[in-house]
Specification:
Rossmann fold, 659 residues, alpha/beta, disordered C terminus, 19 helices
């Protein structure tokens, strides 16, 4: 099938959808139990996508179906997972689906079967994990590893961190925790020192994640950690025996002897799509065991398979994507909120921010032509019910309508919960609850005892930890959580009229719901893949490249200009406000050559006229302290004479050795 790439507003479906009267679509009239039951699609991993509270009609859905055919969404998806060039800006494939299972043909690059390559890296990770968990691989002082910390930023942090936090309670409840895990991402030294303060260096394994091997924030944090270990005064401490790398095969980290092991990814796995590669696989397998990671992959693959269906009414990811296009381009809603009613998904909205906004925050099409219609929305979110006490006021009564994506589960990950009115023991537990201390402002009274009243003693029957004023005390915490979720969906859709406008709820606020029985590894994998595929389908519909991120490059360029001495006076002025020393950094000759020397930033230059520094072999970095320090055999960091963020008591600096 010949694939054609054209803009959204060049399709006949776009013209037809424009003719539909939006005002005629009222959730107050259309949201019925029958619609709620019918507007559901299986999403994989035991999840269901429900779009009954979205502002769509049969005519809208038919128009979106036509749009999917005109834009050849299924055909382009198949071409992508069969190895077609999906990232046309960088002339690369996009193969994150292949990390969890093949959907079509075998994919080769330079004679290498990439499915086998990804499977081989998983096998290497499994073998390494077995040795770590068995105590065959230990730290440099002979102690077993108990903690693993991932050093990475962007896609090397947000996705893996979100998945780890999503399964931390589940794994603890199931007895699957092998190691505690932490994450270090921000170049802010307070982040690094905060992480280091909570761990035992002798029993911690660090994973340095950088596909290119030259990520400034990641290498800076690695150096800080190495310096901390070397200066800790621990006999026998060798930082090299506490470090592994996840990187590209051609990166400077790949061949370094300063890591216990290296696991590889390639240029076909974008950072924000890398959670199911070695980027997420290493830390999740070390923390919970390889089986948990394999279950995540199984759920993701199940969702990937379902995303191949050409009928949008049977394709949850495509339906979600196209309704999002309807809301963005026809209803003109600029924002969407991700609202998981599961504390385990605390960082999932942050991951989706990067996934969506870095992928589809584009204003030109795949042919580098400016678009005349809006593309990716602003994405934000927070778990319920916390968000209800934060920004729901604006969602309910603000001047802008913000489409909502709820996520919920019938059951909690943990077994213990209270059902006070029916029993004094946990509803799912086997032991009675421990007595709780009285809360401030409440009296604690023995069961069957008496509480002092105004006119004497009044008998009380409540358990000692229950406030007399607590409503619905016969409902579990999970029941109350889900009651809040159901109530919010209906409140947003239907509203409630009140003559007092300050108390009036207009309603007509659209939302969708992804729900399942319990948040398990398989369900989490399907949830991850659902949103990855949604973002991909939206990018294809808008005719943009969802797999590059040129928008992050200019800030990196100007950072280097500031560290060189900021020849642009405006850069220098802001650097001065922030206390950045001017012209204290001398780059190595090899860096000058790679970056074109000290050429200054020209804001008047045509957009896209700058070039990123070419990647090549980097010199070794030496740690030069008051006495002869150890050689730190990790790749050179640009501007390495700038003082590295160290603890206040450590005055050591790093610089590139002269050649």
């Amino acid at each position: 099938m010949l694939l054609q790439y054209k803009n959204l507003d060049a399709t006949s479906a776009y013209v037809g959808l424009k003719k539909i009267s939006v005002r005629a679509i009222s959730l107050k009239k259309r949201l019925t139990p029958k619609r709620i039951a019918a507007y559901s699609i299986a999403a994989g991993g035991g999840l269901t996508y429900n779009y009954a509270a979205k502002q769509v009609t049969a005519d809208v859905l038919d128009g979106l179906q036509q749009l999917s055919k005109e834009q050849q969404l299924v055909g382009k998806y198949k071409d992508l997972h069969n190895g077609g060039i999906a990232n046309r800006g960088e002339n690369r494939m996009a193969l994150h689906h292949l990390t969890r299972g093949r959907l079509g043909r075998e994919v080769f690059h330079e004679g290498v079967d990439l499915e086998a390559f990804y499977a081989g890296q998983r096998a290497k990770i499994r073998a390494f994990c077995r040795k770590v968990h068995a105590g065959e691989i230990t730290g440099s002082t002979g102690k077993r590893f108990k903690t693993v910390v991932q050093i990475g930023i962007g896609g090397s942090d947000l996705g893996p961190r979100a998945l780890y936090l999503a399964l931390e309670q589940y794994a603890r409840e199931q007895g699957l925790v092998k190691m505690e895990a932490g994450f270090l991402s921000n170049v802010d030294p307070d982040d690094a020192n905060g992480v280091l303060a909570r761990i035992d260096l002798q029993t911690t394994l660090f994973i340095v994640v950088s596909k290119s091997g030259d990520t400034l924030e990641t290498l800076t944090n690695e150096r800080l950690v190495r310096a901390k270990m070397a200066s800790a005064g621990i006999k026998g401490m060798d930082p090299d025996r506490h470090m592994i790398a996840v990187t590209g095969q051609r990166s400077p980290l790949a061949q370094s002897k300063n890591y216990l092991a290296a696991f590889f990814i390639d240029d076909f796995i974008g950072g924000r799509y890398s959670s199911t590669s070695a980027v997420g696989g290493a830390i999740l397998s070390l923390a919970f065991g390889p089986r948990v990671f394999e279950d995540i992959l199984a759920g993701a693959h199940e969702a990937d398979v379902l995303a191949c269906h050409p009928n949008i009414r049977k394709n949850a990811a495509m339906m979600d994507a196209l309704i999002g296009v309807w809301e963005r381009n026809f209803l003109l809603y600029p924002t969407t909120a991700i609202l998981p009613y599961s504390q385990a998904l605390l960082r999932f909205p942050a991951h989706l921010q990067q996934l969506d906004m870095e992928s589809n925050g584009k204003s030109v099409n795949v042919d580098n032509q400016r678009l005349a219609y809006p593309t990716g929305p602003i994405v934000f979110g927070e778990p319920g019910t916390n968000g209800q006490h934060s920004f729901y006021q604006l969602l309910h009564q603000g001047t802008d309508i913000i489409p909502l994506q709820f996520i919920g589960f019938r059951k909690a990950q943990t077994r213990y919960d209270i059902d006070v009115g029916k029993s004094q023991k946990g509803k799912l537990g086997d032991t009675p609850p421990m007595p709780q201390p009285p809360r401030l402002g409440h009296r604690s009274v023995p069961v069957g005892g008496e509480a002092p009243g105004l006119n004497g003693w009044v008998p009380r029957q409540d358990p000692p930890w229950v406030s007399p004023s607590l409503p619905f005390c016969d409902a579990t915490s999970q029941t109350k959580l889900n009651a809040n979720l159901a109530g919010q969906i209906v409140a947003f859709a239907l509203g409630k009229a009140n003559a007092n406008l300050n108390k009036n709820f207009e309603g007509e606020r659209p939302s969708s719901l992804i729900y399942g029985d319990r948040l398990t590894p398989k369900a989490l994998g399907a949830l991850l893949a659902h949103f990855e595929n949604k973002v991909m389908f939206q990018g294809l519909t808008w005719n943009i490249n969802s797999f590059d991120q040129e928008g992050v490059q200019l800030g990196k360029l100007l950072t280097k200009e500031v560290l060189r001495g900021a020849p642009d006076e405006r850069l220098g002025a802001y650097a001065k406000l922030l206390g950045v020393p001017q012209r204290t950094a001398r780059t190595c000759g090899s860096h000058k050559k790679a970056s074109g020397g000290h050429s200054s930033y020209d804001p008047a230059a045509p957009a896209g006229s700058y070039e990123r520094p070419r990647r090549g072999r980097s010199p070794r970095l030496e740690w030069l302290g008051p006495a002869a320090g150890p050689t730190m055999g990790v790749p050179r960091l640009p501007f390495c004479e700038v003082e590295s963020p160290m603890p206040a008591t450590d005055t050591r600096k790093m610089r590139c050795p002269r050649r």
